[in-house]
Each structure stands twice: as C-alpha cells, then as structure tokens.
Design goal:
Helix content of chain C: over 70%
Radius of gyration of chain A: 24 Å
Strand content of chain C: under 5%
Number of helices of chain A: 13
Strand content of chain A: under 5%
Structural class of chain A: mainly alpha
Strand order of the largest sheet of chain A: 1-2
CATH class of the largest domain in chain C: Mainly Alpha
Number of domains of chain C: 2
Largest sheet of chain C: none
CATH class of the largest domain in chain A: Mainly Alpha
Number of domains of chain A: 2
Order of helices and strands of chain C: HHHHHHHHHHHHHH
CATH superfamily of the largest domain in chain C: MetI-like
Chains: A mainly alpha, B alpha+beta, C mainly alpha
Structural class of chain C: mainly alpha
Distance between the termini of chain A: 19 Å
Number of strands of chain A: 2
Order of helices and strands of chain A: HEEHHHHHHHHHHHH
Number of strands of chain C: 0
Largest interface: A-C, 110 and 95 residues
CATH architecture of the largest domain in chain A: Orthogonal Bundle
Oligomer: heterotrimer
Radius of gyration of chain C: 23 Å
Number of helices of chain C: 14
Distance between the termini of chain C: 20 Å
CATH architecture of the largest domain in chain C: Orthogonal Bundle
C-alpha cells in the first residue's frame, strides 16, 4: 500500500495538522518559559526584568502549592474511580434484557451534553444550597441537619458534580465494549462450570481492559483541565483550588504573570508525568 | 496489446528481501498464473506489476515502454481484488462506470460499455443495486465488469476466487477462462490453489520465497517438474517423495511417484504396506498406505472403486517410466 | 444465545435500569421543570414536583435581561466553525495515518493526543498576548482557531480509527481505476466514511459548544457564547432558581435536541471511535 509516491503524498497531507499543532504547542510554551524567568506584572510596571528561578521557588514554597497538587490528583483520581466502577456496573445492567433500553440509554447519556458551567450552577444552587437546595430538603425530610456541601465537603462535592458529567461517557464506552464480547466465550465458560462472578472476573473484565484504558486516558485529559466547575462553585475556596485554578488566580487575579507562568511550567511537567504513564499503557493497548 | 516484462526486479521491505532479482516475460494474450504457498511473494509480485508497490531495483516494461515509475492509474492495467473492493456506496452501474468517469470517457460510450459488460456477465438486472445486496459470485462479476470496461492492456487477478464457496468457485473459474478466450487480453492470475493454476493457465509461474522455481505450461510442470518443490506442489493428491535406500537403488537422493502412477495388488508388488484410510470417491479411490518401510505415508490413486479397508495388507508397484528422480539438491535428474 | 429470560428477571432489570436512568437524568429534568415555576414555587418547602402553575415568565425575563440570540449565535459559529475547520485539516492527516502508516505513525498520533494534555492555563497568558497582538481577542475568529486547535487531536484520532475500518483494497481499486489522490479521497473515502465523519463532527461540536475555559477567558462581550451567558448567573442571580433554570435550559436545549435527533451517530461518536 505504500509507494514512494503515496508516502510523499502522505507526508504532505499530514503537514498542516502537524505544523498547526506544533505551533500551538511550541509558541505559547516558549513564551510561558520566558515569562517564568521574569518578574512580570502587567498592571504594576510590566516587564521588570529577569529574575532567574525566583518564580519557581516562590511558587513551590507558597503554602497553596502542595494542597493544589493534592486537590488536582484527588479530583482526577476520585472521578476516575467513581466513573469506572459505576460505569462497569451500569454497563452490565444496561446490557441485560429489558424494556425501553433505548430510552434508558438516552437518559444516562444526557449529562454529557450539559455544559460544565450549567451543571456546576445547577448543582451548586438547586441541589447543594444548604437552605433551598433539593438535597437540603431531602436531609431535613429524614430529620438530618443539611450539609453545607460546598464548604464542609467541598472536594467530594466537586468530585460528585464532575463524576455526574463523566459517568455517561464511561458507561457508554464500557457498554459498547461489553456488547462486542463474543457471547460464545461466556457460554463456553458456562459449560466449563464457571459461576457468574467468575465469568465476570475471568472473561468480561479482561475483555473490558482496552475500553477502561480508553476511558482513563480520555477522561484524564479532560479532568486535569477541570476549570469551570470550580470557577462557578467555590471559586477555588475551601480546599478546591487545583493547580489549574491556582495558576489562573496568579495570572488573572493577582496579575503576576511571571509567577503564574512558573506555575504553568509545573503544571505542564505534572501533565507530562501523567501523560507518560498513560501513553505507555495506551500505546500497549491501542494496537488492536 | 499487453506484453509485460520484468527485468532484474527486486523488492525489499526494510531489511527483508521479499523478491530476489527476478526476470520474467509475460507474452501478449497469455493467461499466466502465479502460484505458490502463502507468503511466497506472488501477491507482492502482482502488486509490483500493478504499481501499488514500488520495486526496489530493476525495471518493469509494459508493451516495450518502461513503466517502472508510472503510477498505477497510468499503467493501463485493471485489477480484480481478493475482497472484490467494490465501492459500497455506489450502485453496480456507478461502480462499473467509475474507471471510465476517471478517464473522462463520455457518457454515451460509458453506457454502451456498461450495458455490454453487464450482458456478458449476467448483471443487467442488478445494475441499480448496491454491492451489499449482491451475492459473492455477483460481486465478483461486478469487479470483473469494472475491470473489463477499461479495456486494459492486461488484467490482474489477486486470488479472486478464495472468498467464494467451492461450487461457485468452479463456475467462476470457467467464466474467467471463457472471458479470456473471448477477449484474448493478457491476464495475470494469482492463486495458492494449484487446481486453479492447472485448469486455467497457459503458463504457470511457480514461486517460493520470492524465487521462481519453474515456468511452464501446466502439463510441462506435471510431467517434468524441475525440482522436488514443484513436484510436490503441482498435482493432487501430492506426489509421493521417497528418500533413503529405496531412492539410492535408482541412483537418486529422492524419488517421486504420483499417486495415479502406482499399481496396486493384494498379492504381490514392489512395496508392501498396510491400508490406513481408504477414501472412496466413486470415480477414484485414494488409499493412504502405512508401514511401507519407505518413510512417509504413501498415497495411491486408483480409478474406479476397489475393496480396501483399514488394516488390509496391500502391495504397491510404481510405473517405472513415470518415476521422477531428484539429486541431493532437490534438482531433477534426467 | 437465545435463552428464555424469565419475565421476573426482565421486570427487575427494567425497574433497576429505569430507576438509575431517571436518577441520573433527574438534575436535568428538575432544571427544566423549575424553569416553568414561579420563583416562590421554585424554592417551596417541600419541593413541588409537577403540581405548580406553569409559567413562561422566566424565559421572558431572561430574554429581556440579556441578548440570548447573540450568545446562541456565537456558540453556533464558534462550535460549528472550529469543528468544520478541524475536519478539513484532519481528513488528509487521518488518511495518511490510516492508509500509509509508517513506523512513526503511532508516535505522531500519541504526540498529537499529548498536546491535549498541556494544561491550557499554563499558556493562557501567552495566548492572551498573541490575541491582543493579532487583534482577535473577544472575536469569534479567535475562538474558532483556538477551539479548532484544542480539538484537532481528537478529530484526527477519531477519523483515524474510523478510516482504519475501511479496507485499503478499495482505495487501491480506486487508484487502479485511475483516480487521483484528490478523487480517491473525495469520491471513495469520504462517502464511505460518512457515518464516522458525522459522529466526529457531532461529538466535537458538542465538546466545542461546552468548552468553558477559553470561551470564558478570551471573550468579554462581542464573541461571548452560551457558556459565558450562563456564567453570568453564578451569583447572586443564581439564587433565583426559576430564572437560573430557564437560562440553563436555554443553554443546553440546542445540544439536547441535536443529540435527540442524531442518537446513533452520537453514541458512536461518544466512544471517540475507540471502542467498537
């Protein structure tokens, strides 16, 4: 399928996408790197010259740094755990014979279409409001004291909101994968005397390996960048300040571009560490 | 016109040499079959001729013109693929018209050629269907129709029958042979099935590991295989190849005798053995004989029906004038 | 395969699935219902589920307060423009990767995906500066470009996985039939890949529609799409549940309706083409 002619055509046709993405990656990256070594305060004097690694040291030694890393990883890890576990269970349920499967599937997918700002606002006000929120009513109905979700349990609340948005995606991918499982394999296992739980463990779950990898990869890409949900709900307060949000505050709220850029470089490094692990796993799993 | 000439053609994929230097001439109007076991390079060779792969070194000439660097579309060849490669989103008519549309042939001429091809291939009633609504044999005919209307210098067939069931395969084999008789256009046909090769070819090219083992007419290959490989590959059931003391008696490292050239007796003969399995086909009987002291299982083919069952003692006598002898390198002696 | 499922099993399955499905869908349903209540009924204790006085007043107020149509139009242009542009750039790239693979194809693909992992916030200020320099801050053009670049890796990846399903022999047949590369892609590949391209279009349209980092940070007034429209309700207007609900419903309705009409492509697209 490959002649010299088609190979050079292929290179030519790949060029626009590669060049665009390379530019999109390199130009801002280089600028960020440059700013990170400067004292740069747009509203208070602008470019105040090179300062070496001062921004890097200051960003890490700030008391907000480590909590923000922890918050980031908690959100990513928490959402991944919830969506994968419930996604598998939900996918198995939806794969059973039932009436109205198509409608149920639409109901389950729907949250994915809701834009993050809307979902954050709706959850924050209409469900998690400690006075008028629906959850508060529910708690009072059972005689419990309503929880102030976004201040007392801020991180779990965010994890919950984001999980609600991403559960449909995980479920759908896992459902598609389960449906592609050759039923003869399961029947063979049944003939061999494997009970349902063992059939799940030895056949269904390994079959889902690739799908789970895809879920983890794609969700991680999006979860590392969670922004609107925090912007709208807590504004970074109550321990929900992720690395993304911390940098956002440094750059836009305190207008300290140098410091923010140093933070940006850290975020890029963190993302790359995660990326390397993921790409390894995916590269192995992507060959099919 | 369609004479195709390969001059010292080689092909490497990275470090792997798939085709060592190879010379071959396919004469105009000839039906040539490339045959060999899977992985022998026959399909690669066809794709080199088609221009779908670059040759690494050497030259390809079509009708005396150097076509080495000519893109596939400009070589004037038509190809029928193993999977038929029909365009699923186009009707049969559009599929057949596609190469003519690409060539900018005017519509009236397009329709004329489509209608005559459809008539010849029994597709007239199916012109408005999509490939997905056709049976395997019909799809195959559409693929052939698409090739015919181009009026190519040569047709290339890449294992075109391997996706059809056995009965259909025999029918299509005849249709392709008849097509060749009618068009008299050069055809190159790739298959791993030596029956197809024997029944269809004017000239067979036997390939192994990219090397041409023998080129010749079907009967040449049958009667005078150049080496052990060709001897074993052409003919069904396979020729019995016997090594060791028995071969040395005939002054050879290996002797070969075809199953149909062995006489059988219940009482006397050259080799004594025990019947393993007897396959009764009605017209013929294949007997697989064990414990002959000749090494491998020996197969014999007898016309008509013969009483033989598992465990019977049986005597075999090869017809001496049909004995093939090979030296230690596997090459034919005499 | 076909074994009688007991009626009882099926009833239990149905009940469980519908229960969970409705639970997951409930926040959306509740938002839509609340948008038709009066403010008083919206915060009534205990909550009123259906027996309220249906009113369209909230929608009227929201329309009056802000120019919904302009936000909507911006969203359509930005999401649609970035997706179409992305497809235009991605189709040739995906063709190359799927049909002329080399040793580096997989590396390039993974590298493309990895650019999506670069935290946007890390490059926010540079992009901001570049946008000012180019005079495209708060313009739809600017956002079309940024969102196109954001989603390009996913578009390439999805198209690549769809294209790989198409047998190479068919493209070779087109080549033998005398088609040029352009004709091969236009007349053979693209029509065959229509379902995959549709899924890709749809999913990326939704991703762009819902994108809420660049759209919030690179727009002010002129190019602000629906994500910004709704963000203006964060507080204290968010305490007016009925109006918040009406605005929310207006922001998500176009996508929900689009999704409803194109379920099949969407379900396929939602798997990012990664799982069959």
């Amino acid at each position: 399928m490959a002649t010299q002619h088609s190979r050079s055509a292929a290179r030519l046709m790949m060029a626009p996408a590669v060049v665009l993405l390379l530019g999109w990656m390199l130009v801002p990256l280089i600028m960020t790197l440059m700013f990170s070594f400067k004292k740069y305060l747009p509203l208070r004097g602008g470019d105040l010259g090179w300062v070496g690694f001062e921004n890097y040291v200051r960003f890490v030694s700030s008391s907000a740094f480590w909590p923000s890393v922890v918050a980031t990883l908690t959100i990513v890890g928490g959402v991944l755990l919830i969506t994968v576990v419930f996604g598998v269970l939900l996918a198995i349920l939806l794969n059973q014979p039932m009436w109205g499967q198509g409608v149920v599937r639409i109901l389950v997918i729907a949250p994915f279409f809701v834009m993050p700002t809307v979902s954050a606002l709706v959850w924050k006000n209409m469900f998690m409001d400690p006075v008028n929120g629906l959850l508060a009513h529910l708690w009072k109905f059972f005689g419990a004291t309503p929880i102030e979700w976004l201040s007392q349990a801020s991180l779990p609340s965010i994890v919950m909101i984001v999980s609600w948005q991403w559960l449909p995606f995980a479920t759908l991918i896992l459902l598609t994968a389960i449906q592609s499982l050759d039923s003869e394999q399961l029947e063979a296992a049944e003939m061999d005397g494997a009970p349902p739980l063992k059939r799940f463990g030895y056949i269904t779950l390994p079959h889902l390996g690739r799908a789970i990898t895809v879920v983890v990869l794609i969700q991680t890409i999006f979860l590392l960048a969670v922004f609107a949900e925090i912007f709208v709900t807590t504004g970074g307060a109550f321990g929900t300040r992720t690395l993304t949000y911390l940098i956002f505050q440094r750059v836009l709220e305190s207008q300290n571009v140098g410091l923010g850029s140093a933070g940006g470089v850290y975020a890029i490094i963190l993302a790359n560490i995660v990326a390397i692990f993921l790409m390894r796993a995916v590269g192995k799993n992507l060959d099919a | 016109m369609g004479q195709i000439k390969l001059n010292q053609v080689t092909k490497r994929f990275g470090e792997v040499e798939v085709i060592p230097p190879l010379d071959l001439t396919i004469e105009d109007g000839e039906f040539t079959v490339f045959v060999g076991p899977s992985g022998c390079g026959k399909s690669t060779l066809l794709r080199l001729i088609a221009g779908l792969e670059d040759i690494t070194t050497g030259h390809i000439e079509i009708d005396g013109n150097d076509a080495t660097n000519v893109p596939p579309a400009k070589r004037g060849l038509a190809m029928v693929f193993q999977s038929y490669a029909l365009y699923p989103h186009m009707s049969v008519r559009k599929n057949i018209a596609f190469p003519m549309k690409m060539a900018g042939i005017d519509e009236a001429e397009q329709n004329r050629r489509i209608d005559s091809a459809a008539k010849a291939l029994n597709l007239t009633d199916y012109l408005d269907r999509r490939p997905g609504q056709l049976s395997g044999g019909q799809r195959q005919r559409v693929a052939i129709g698409r090739a015919i209307v181009r009026e190519p210098a040569a047709f290339l067939f890449d294992e075109p029958l391997s996706n059809l069931d056995a009965a259909l395969r025999v029918g299509m084999r005849l249709e392709i042979s008849e097509l060749h008789e009618r068009l008299k256009t050069t055809m190159i046909y790739v298959t791993h099935d030596q029956v197809e090769a024997m029944t269809m070819a004017d000239k067979i090219v036997v390939l192994r590991a990219g090397i041409v083992e023998q080129v010749g007419s079907p009967l040449e290959l049958y009667h005078t295989p150049r080496n052990e490989f060709v001897a074993g590959f052409i003919g069904s059931p396979k020729m019995n190849l016997i090594k060791g003391a028995e071969a040395e008696k005939h002054g050879a490292a290996t002797i070969g005798i075809r199953p149909e050239h062995t006489d059988v007796s219940k009482t006397e003969g050259m080799w004594k053995g025990v019947v393993g399995v007897a396959e009764h086909l009605g017209s013929d009987t294949f007997i697989h004989v064990h414990e002959t002291g000749l090494g491998d299982l020996v197969t014999v083919r007898i016309t008509g029906d013969i009483q033989a069952k598992h465990g019977d003692t049986i005597y075999l006598t090869p017809q001496m004038d049909k004995l093939h002898k090979f030296d230690a390198q596997g090459l034919r002696i005499g | 395969m076909a074994r009688a499922v007991t009626q009882q099993r099926k009833i239990i399955n149905t009940a469980a699935a519908w229960g969970i499905g409705l639970l997951i869908f409930f926040p959306i349903l509740w938002t839509i219902l609340t948008s038709f209540k009066t403010e008083a009924q919206a915060i009534a204790d205990p909550p009123i589920f259906l027996a309220f006085d249906w009113t369209l007043e909230n929608y009227a107020v929201v329309m009056e307060r802000s120019n919904y149509m302009r936000f909507l139009w911006n969203s359509v242009i930005i999401a649609g423009g970035s997706t179409l542009l992305g497809i235009l750039v991605a189709v040739p790239a995906a063709w190359s990767m799927a049909f002329v693979p080399s040793k580096r194809t997989k590396d390039i693909l993974l590298w493309m995906l990895s650019t999506k992992m670069l935290p946007a916030v890390g490059v926010l200020y540079p992009i901001y500066l570049i946008f000012i320099k180019l005079g495209i801050l708060d313009t739809r053009t600017g956002l079309v470009i940024v969102l196109m670049l954001m989603n390009l890796p996913i578009i390439v990846w999805m198209l690549y996985t769809y294209f790989r399903e198409i047998p190479g022999e068919i493209l070779e047949a087109a080549r033998m039939d005398g088609a040029t590369l352009k004709e091969e892609i236009l007349y053979v590949l693209t029509p065959m890949a229509v379902p995959g391209i549709a899924s890709t279009l749809l999913l990326n349209f939704i991703l762009a529609w819902n994108e809420a980092f660049w759209t919030l940070n690179l727009t002010a007034v002129n190019a602000a799409p629906l994500t910004a429209f709704i963000a203006s309700y964060s507080s204290p207007e968010g305490l007016f549940f009925a109006k918040l609900s009406a605005a929310s419903t207006m922001a998500i309705a176009p996508i929900l309706i689009l999704g409803w009409f194109s379920q099949k492509q969407l379900v396929s697209g939602l798997t990012f083409g990664a799982v069959k």
